Amino acid sequence: MRRKNTTSKMMKGYIIGALLLLMKKRNFSEISIGEITDKAGVNRSTYYRNFHSKEEIIETFFCNILEQTITELPADDNLTLQEYLAHVFKVFYSYKDDILCIHQNKLSHLLLSALNSYFLVSTDTVNESFIERLPLYYHTGGIFNNFILWFDCNMEPAPEIFAEVAAKICLPNARPVLLHPKNFTTNPVRP
């Protein structure tokens, strides 16, 4: 059945969902575009209008999680780093099965692409010098590697424990990049 009266965002969601369902049964490299579009209930032209590759589908999935992280962030002016990290890890944890399937298919590197496009494109890094851009690139790489370690450990420990440990090892003035500065205090951990 082909879908009608849908938005581009909905179509992308159907395609993402279809690929993730197929990946739970078969290896990513074995899945064809035709299988994805059949499972999603969309035309091939819809796929090509929205994506250039199967990898871009996974990257968009990660971008959607990052966007959800922001939109569902508590509007607390006194949010600590640990509370922020717990929120981020809980959102990612809610997609545990899909993320671990992606990780098992050796596609976790696409999270770095999503982080880079989210952080680096959403900020004005183009006009900044190497020295001004370095902290953002450094930060993004650190976030990525923490996620990879967590995925390697089957997303254990629980998000709250991971957030507590991560907050303790951060520098005292660490601030999350995904937040607007007014929503974050520089106190990394509440007593």
Describe the protein.
This protein is mainly alpha-helical. It has nine helices and no strands. It is globular and about 50 Å long. The C terminus is likely disordered.
Task: Provide keyphrases for this structure.
single chain, 191 residues, mainly alpha, 0% strand, disordered C terminus
Offer a quick outline of the entry.
This protein is mostly helical and 191 residues long.
Proportion of residues in extended strands: under 5%
In the predicted model, the low-confidence regions spanning at least 5 consecutive residues are 180-191
Number of helices: 9
Compute the average pLDDT: 84
How many β-strand runs? 0
Helix and strand element order: HHHHHHHHH
C-alpha Rg, in Å?
Answer: 18 Å
Report the end-to-end length measured between terminal Cα atoms: 56 Å
Sum up the overall morphology in one term: globular
Question: Could you give a short account of the major beta sheet?
Answer: none
Task: Determine the structural class based on helices, strands and strand pairing.
Answer: mainly alpha
- The percentage helix is 55-70%
